[in-house]
Design a protein that fits this description.
Layout: H1 17-24, H2 33-50, E1 52-57, H3 62-65, E2 71-73, H4 75-84, E3 89-93, H5 96-105, E4 110-112, H6 128-137, E5 143-146, H7 151-155, E6 159-161, H8 166-172, E7 177-181, H9 184-191, E8 197-200, H10 213-222, E9 227-230, H11 236-241, E10 244-245, H12 248-258, E11 262-266, H13 269-278, E12 283-285, H14 299-308, H15 317-333
Parallel strand pairs: 1-2, 1-3, 3-4, 5-6, 5-7, 7-8, 9-10, 9-11, 11-12
Helix pairs in contact: 2-14, 4-5
């Protein structure tokens, strides 16, 4: 096993590679580590040389999440921290709309995404033209847009939200009804928690829409005593059958605070992997719905992004200004 010291980084200053391996040894076989370690050492060196940070979403694999990421979390956490970083270069280990959001909040910084094809089925379910048609059909009704959307869609919106602050944002507007796009299930699950009337769109996440209430029943039957946590992008009947519903950050907090002996997270595969490494004493049941877009990001292409300064994410000025206002309003309200 490699024992060379890695260069100084914000997250792991002067740690030996062996210590980094200790973070992920329950997930990464030792025989695979030397190959990963070469990329990790190179990434950490490049981050220091280029004053770069890696932002990693909770759905990234543990080898990225626990070794090279400087900032980790859900969409809201990444948006907040992107606005605070003093780095010159931001590498977004996530999907394209997240990189666009980081660019909106850091217009003078270089924002890179390791794979331009890392998209999102939910973001692709709605266009800016669709939003304009919705506004025309519901005059005067404010548009609350989930951050899982393109900058062009955000630019047509009044305010953004995340799965973690959707109810708070909807109620903060002080209106009897809102248009909430694009995730139908997040809108319906939020509507169940508030008196505000919510007009929904028919967009779905290809990961979360596959979970069913029958899955929950089978999990409870096969794993007695299991505590079931679900993301609010899951269908309402799944949310009704589970024990707790929340954003990825809220689910991780629940596990840390409640420490259920046996738990299942109804969300993307790597979320469970990352949380399980933090709590080795807990039993994680892992039904795996994988996001193919998130899995386009690897240690190898993060390294290539920093070496070659590719692929830079830009947003046209006429879109960036109104989209930035929608994101900043979210950060102010939520």
């Amino acid at each position: 096993m490699l024992e060379t010291l890695i260069p100084n980084s914000r997250q792991t200053p002067n740690l030996p590679l062996a210590e980094l391996y200790h973070r992920v040894e329950r997930h990464v076989p030792e025989i695979e580590w030397p190959v990963l370690a070469a990329d990790i050492a190179a990434i950490l060196k490049l981050k220091r040389e280029k004053n770069a940070v890696v932002l990693a979403h909770n759905y990234q694999t543990p080898d990225i999440f626990h070794t090279v990421a400087d900032i980790v979390g859900d969409s809201l956490a990444l948006a907040r921290e992107a606005a605070r970083t003093d780095a010159d270069v931001i590498v977004l280990a996530g999907v394209h709309f997240m990189a666009e959001t980081a660019k909106l909040l850091n217009p003078e910084k270089t924002v890179l995404i390791p794979d331009m094809k890392a998209g999102c089925s939910l973001a692709e379910s709605i266009t800016a033209a669709d939003v304009r048609l919705l506004r025309a059909s519901h005059p005067g009704v404010p548009v609350v847009t989930y951050v899982n959307t393109s900058a062009a869609v955000k630019a047509e919106s009044d305010v953004c939200c995340t799965s973690g602050n959707a109810k708070k944002i909807v109620e903060a507007l002080g209106t009897p009804e809102v248009i909430m796009i694009p995730d139908e299930y997040l809108a319906r699950n939020t509507a169940a928690q508030t008196r505000v009337k919510i007009i929904a769109w028919k967009g779905h996440c290809e990961v979360h829409e596959r979970f069913s209430a029958e899955d929950v029943r089978e999990l409870r039957a096969g794993h007695p005593g299991v505590v079931v946590l679900a993301h609010p992008e899951c269908p309402p009947e799944v949310v009704a059958a589970c024990d707790f519903t929340g954003s990825t950050a809220a689910m991780a907090d629940y596990v840390g605070q409640k420490r259920p002996a046996r738990v299942v997270l109804l969300t993307e595969c790597s979320m469970s992997d990352n949380v399980a490494l933090q709590y080795p004493d807990l039993d994680f049941v892992r039904p795996c719905n994988l996001c193919p877009h998130m899995k386009r990001i690897t240690l190898g292409n993060i390294r290539q992004a920093l070496e070659n300064m590719t692929h830079e994410v830009t947003v046209p000025a006429e879109i960036a200004a109104p989209a930035r206002r929608a994101v900043e309003r979210m950060l102010e309200l939520g």
